[in-house]
Amino acid sequence: MPTAPRAVLLDVDGTLVDTSYAHTTCWWQALREHGHVVPMHRIHRAIGLGSDRIVGHLLDGDDEAVADEVVASHAALFAAWHERLVPLPGARDLVRRCHEARMVVVLSTSAGRTDLDALRSALDADDWVDESTTSSDAERSKPDTDILDVALERIGLGAGEAVFVGDSVWDAEAARRAGMPCVGVECGGTSAAELREAGCVDTYADPADLLRHWEESALAGVTGG
To answer: What pTM was computed for the model?
Structure first.
């Protein structure tokens, strides 16, 4: 019989809460405010990188002053979305199912504390969440493993005892580097093919689809389905 993981680490933006395109729009506007016109398709493909990386990635440079200004603008713009955020289909039920399966449930995100508070409010699943990590807990965001490493350290488990659920190639790469299986969901706008190429062992349309296929997923201890 497959051995179910002892913990699940859940990305939040684009995985549990429908934010990927809101972030794309806010980064586009923030860049415009500082004189940089970047096509939205490029921005969307970078969503999932932390704010410490995304501006340099999009502008092909590391001008720290410019990056800080753009990040501050994005934070202000995205804050206007906080009250309008909604969970993705099945997201709340997925968190509850993981808890009922006796997994340690961790919200493992590169979002800042203020954004995470808004995301948690939209998700309304705190009764089933054991731990969380934010950008302040990591020196480097995904695809580096800092966020995942901190989460595992806090719950006292190894990478081989956990599964990560995310929506971006950056999530998959971070999990691969950490030695942890990654389940991908397409609801952040990244295709199943791209997620699998980046290292996901399973892919599903959204949390509701993952729930429907729970017994054949990595959350039930089955990988490579």
So the answer is: 0.95
